[in-house]
Amino acid sequence: MSIDVNNESDFEVNELEISAQAQFVLRSLHINPAAELSVLLVDEVAMTVLHEKFMDEPGPTDVLSFPMDELRAGTPDRVSEEGVLGDVVLCPAVAQRQGEQAGHSMEVELRLLLTHGILHLLGHDHAEPEEHKVMFGLQAQLLAQWEGERNARGLA
Predict the structure, then answer these.
(1) How deeply is 128 buried, as exposed, middle or buried, from its count of CB atoms within 10 A (0-12, 13-18, 19+)?
(2) How many domains is the chain built from?
(3) How far is 136 from 115, CA to CA, in rounded Å?
(4) What is the domain-level CATH number for residue 120?
(5) DSSP 3-state assignment of 3?
(6) Which residue in 73, 116, 128, 138 has a CA-CA distance of 20 to 30 Å to 26?
């Protein structure tokens, strides 16, 4: 999988771990190995511009997803189509505040937001109660599996 991580924020982040987590999530969802994903980390000013332009909402947000080829998850028997998943844009400054409020680190919050953003690229949503249940259940499952993988790799 081609995962491009570009940190344009003032925060230090582990770009290799972000890439590894994204690869893990995509493999877990049976995404074609030839698929492409871009992860961009931006400051609050850039995120505010994107949030207002594309969502018509004021101020910065934590994560935005911009799907390209509208790929969907595959199955254990058949991977997804080939293509460009799109872009996940993360804002570490917002993630840091949310992590503090939730009682965990910015890194933990960024892992949650990355998974959330990838699920949006794959067509998941949480506007309706049933969609919310499915998406957040899958998100929790993937994060728990990734934590196990991180521990196995000695990243924790």
Answers:
(1) exposed
(2) 1
(3) 10
(4) 3.40.390.30
(5) strand
(6) 128
What is the Cα–Cα distance from 66 to 77, expressed in whole angstroms? 27
Q: What is the DSSP letter of 88?
A: E
Range of the domain at 82: 2-153
Q: From residue 124, how far is each of 5, 36, 58, 116, 127 by CA, in Å? A: 22, 18, 23, 9, 10
Collect all residues with Cβ–Cβ distance below 8 Å to 50 and sequence separation of at least 6: 42, 64, 89
Regarding beta strands 36-41 and 84-90, do their DSSP bridges make them parallel or antiparallel, or are they unpaired?
A: parallel
Whole-number pLDDT of residue 28: 97
SS3 call for 2: strand
Integer Cα distance of 32 and 74 in angstroms:
8
**83's tokens:** 């293509």
Q: Are 14 and 107 in contact (CB under 8 A)?
A: yes
pTM above 0.90, yes or no: yes
